[in-house]
Design brief:
Layout (H helix, E strand, L loop, with lengths): L4 E6 L2 E6 L18 H14 E2 L8 H5 L5 E5 L5 H9 L4 E5 L3 H14 L4 E4 L3 H8 L5 E7 L17 H10 E11 L2 H12 L4 E3 L17 H8 L5 E7 L2
Parallel strand pairs: 3-6, 4-5, 4-7, 5-6, 7-8
Antiparallel strand pairs: 1-2, 8-10, 9-10
Helix pairs in contact: 1-4, 3-4
Length: 244
C-alpha cells in the first residue's frame, strides 16, 4: 500500500507528511471518501486553530488548552458527533480526537464551530504516531476506543487495533488510575478485547465481577448503535484502569 498524504493547510493540498510513520500491519484502511462542501469549508476555517500535527512534536497539553484539566483521548472518532457531544456536555474537560479519514475530520470541525467548542483538538494521523511521538507519558486521564474496525475475518484478526503491545503503549500515556474505555458491537471482538485486557500488565477491571461494564452515561449512543440495538445486536463496554 502506498503512503497517503495528510492534508494540513487545506483539504485538497497534501503536505509532505504521511498518515503514518509505522511500518507493518495497519489497523485501518484509508477510504477515498470526499469531504462535503460544508466539511471542506469548516476544515479551511478551523483546522489552523484546532488541528495538531506530528510536526508539532511532543505537546504540553497545558499549553495546547491553556489550562490543566481532565484530558481525554478518543482514537478513531468517525464523523465526530459523539466526541462533540461529550465535549459539549463536559466543558470543564479537554478532548483530543484522532481520525485518519478526512471527511470525519471536516465533520468534527463543523460540529466544533456549530457548538462553539473550545475544548477539542484533532490529529489526522495514525493513532500509533500520536501515542509514540506526540503525547507525554502519564498525561491522559481517559483513553476511549469506540467501535474500532472489528476485522471480523480470522485471517485479519492481526489487524485489530486492540492488541497487547498497543495497550501497553497506551498505558504509559495514562496517569495511574486513568481509564481505558473500549466499546464494540462485535461479540467476537469483545471477547478478544476482554482477553487482551485481562492479560495486560498494569491494568485492572473496574468491574469487580471481572466482566463487561454497563455503558457509562457519558458515552453517547451513536445512530449506528441505536440501529444495531433495534436489530437485536449487542454492545459491549470494557473499562479498565491503570494500576501502575
Amino acid at each position: 500500500m502506498t503512503d497517503h498524504k495528510e492534508p494540513q493547510n487545506s483539504p485538497d493540498t497534501a503536505a509532505e507528511s504521511p498518515v503514518t510513520t509505522r511500518r507493518g500491519v495497519r489497523s485501518f484502511v484509508l477510504r477515498q471518501g470526499r469531504m462535503t462542501e460544508g466539511q471542506k469549508k469548516a476544515f479551511e476555517r478551523s483546522w489552523p486553530k484546532y488541528g495538531l500535527t506530528r510536526e508539532d512534536g511532543m505537546i504540553d497539553p497545558r499549553e495546547v488548552f491553556g489550562r490543566d484539566n481532565m484530558l481525554n483521548l478518543e482514537i478513531g472518532f468517525g464523523m465526530g458527533r459523539s466526541l462533540a457531544e461529550m465535549a459539549e456536555a463536559a466543558p470543564e474537560q479537554d478532548f483530543i480526537g484522532v481520525e485518519v479519514h478526512q471527511p470525519g475530520v471536516g465533520a468534527l470541525l463543523k460540529e466544533i464551530e456549530e457548538r462553539g467548542l473550545e475544548n477539542v483538538r484533532i490529529y489526522s494521523i495514525d493513532a500509533n504516531d500520536v501515542i509514540d511521538l506526540c503525547l507525554p507519558d502519564a498525561c491522559l486521564d481517559r483513553v476511549m476506543v469506540f467501535f474500532p474496525d472489528p476485522w471480523h475475518k480470522k485471517k485479519h484478526h492481526k489487524r485489530r487495533l486492540i492488541q497487547h503491545e498497543f495497550v501497553q503503549r497506551v498505558r504509559h500515556k495514562l496517569r495511574v488510575g486513568g481509564i481505558l474505555h473500549l466499546a464494540t458491537d462485535w461479540e467476537n471482538y469483545a471477547e478478544h478485547m476482554l482477553e487482551v485486557m485481562n492479560e495486560s500488565e498494569g491494568f485492572a477491571n473496574t468491574q469487580e465481577s471481572g466482566g463487561y461494564s454497563p455503558r457509562p452515561e457519558d458515552r453517547p449512543i451513536t445512530k449506528f448503535e441505536k440501529r444495531g440495538e433495534t436489530l437485536g445486536h449487542g454492545v459491549w463496554d470494557l473499562l479498565f484502569y491503570r494500576t501502575n
